[in-house]
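User: I'm writing a short report section on ligand binding and want a predicted complex to refer to. Could you take this sequence and zinc ion and write out the structure as tokens? A short remark afterwards would be nice.
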Amino acid sequence: MSELCSDCGCVKGQLHEIFCTNERCPFCNNQLVSCGCISEILSLNSEEQLALDEYIDDEAEPLKSINERWVKALAQKGRRPF
Ligand SMILES: [Zn+2]
Ligand SMILES: [Zn+2]
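Assistant: Sure. The structure tokens for the complex follow:
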């Protein structure tokens, strides 16, 4: 019997689906989707920060590339498995 993440359904010890609400931030150890590390780590400018706050469409720029940069930064730091 294996434990599954209640949100993304990944198995214990595996990485969550990216932006799963149960994933911990490797920078601050808080909930990844709600912590503020993205702004600091990526040094977002005010325009990018505004786009992130409004979060209208992550398939469109600038959100798309902000998310890509964030995923890269997380992978470099080492994402936290479930
Ligand atoms: Zn998960
Ligand atoms: Zn964080």
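A remark for your report: The pocket of zinc ion (ligand 2) is lined by residues 25, 27-28, 30, 35, 37 (CB under 6 Å). DSSP finds three helices and no strands in the chain.
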